[in-house]
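job 3f2a | input accepted
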Amino acid sequence: MLEAGEHVVTIVHRHPIGIIAIYLEALIGILAITGLGYLVFSDRLHNLSGQAYRLMIGIVIVLVGLVALIILVATYVYHQSRLIVTDKSLVQVIQKGLFIRKISRLSMSNVEDVSAAHSGILAMMFNFGTLTVQTAGEEDNFIFIYCPNPDYYAERILDARQAYARSLGEEGRHLL
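job 3f2a | predicted structure (176 res):
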């Protein structure tokens, strides 16, 4: 993803709180299905034969395994999204699904402004938010959600942008 002579300044991964929401949704789903199944089949559970009971336990184990697999895939997908800050560009990798990835590159010369936003009590308590890199021209802004410590990373990007501008100024003077 990097060009020759390009050096990584920092890599920003998503805050873990975003995956916790997925875990909670899965847990609520499991509890809801279990509760519904118990309500519907509670009177029938006592009359099951040994073979039917083992079959039912097997189905439950397969369903729990399927949910565990879905959670592992969701965790993998979540952790693949990142923002790579180099001395010459920004590279945003957004993994939307197991087989859906979007990689965008933005030259430091096109970075206009960087802002950080904390929305909500959890964002303030756990220090995460949305990092927005505003671009010059018609290019889309880079929006990185669940960014840990977005104020810190906004400063790192602005520092890299200033260092890039200084390096261009120094190179321009050497050519004269």
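job 3f2a | The chain has one domain: 9-176.
job 3f2a | closed
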